[in-house]
Amino acid sequence: MSNIKTLYAETRSIASLLLIILIFPTQLWATACDDATTLVTQAYQLTNQNRDRQKSLLQQALKRCPNHAIAHNNLAVLFEKEGRDKQALYHYRQMLNSPSKQYHIPAWMSIGDLYYQQRQWPLSLEAYLYACTRNHRARARVNELMHENRYRTVEENEVMKRESLAVLYDKSRLRQLFELATQCQRKFKSVATSKAYLFETITVFRNLRFKTGQSNLGLVTEEQLEEISLTLINQSANKTIHIKGHADSQPWGGRTQKESQRLNQQLSLKRAVAVKTAFVQRGVPKNRIKIKGYGENRPLVKGQNEAAWAKNRRVEIELND
Asked: What's the mean pLDDT in 22-50?
């Protein structure tokens, strides 16, 4: 995948550049961090000859100097190559603890790229916004993810994890994203952030699957339902959960347009009921949930074709007071 190759190439380039800086520590550095830099250099010189040995040297470096940014970066790259994303993210985030802020933007870019690969759009957007004023590729990603609210939309064959959902249902984090977007847009007019939507605690799910004309949830939605339920249970108990069902405008066979509209409205409501039932079965309090079916009356896109219908078939879940 080209994105992955680009990420590795850029991360290695960052590591090489920062390593050159660290090979010549100032006299103010403690001996422990000097020793750590020596270990980082030794690990770097091994390249891919002995990955286990590289990790061992980098871990020794971090024992001597816990905030050694390049040791964290290089260890994260090794974990990422092994597909151990959780460990990689941990070490990229540890770079943010470095007292030298020159490492913060590379760290945010690596975090954003890793979440982007995972298709965890809210977390990816959050990371790119932290780098937005300092990195042109971050600005391009922000524009991409903000376009048509991509960051809060879950397509077929995607699953938004609870860590990402927690961003979308937390007003304090959304407020922080708004502030970051505002700072970036003031400096770079090319950033079209649609900031007003950042305050909306709503997620659009196109992956909660129903067969055409039916209201029974498919088995493919089980993982997503689990993630949503756990998120909603953990959110403030005084928040109301609004489940909004939407149908496409496909006509029902042998029915008039008016009759088709009525049937689509009923179908969208039944689908909202099905989602509510699934949440209650998973422990979400029934009295927190309100449902509504909008039928085909609130399309996201216009058109009478499969592409438009696919975008308009959706369930929206909103959390508010």
From this structure: 75
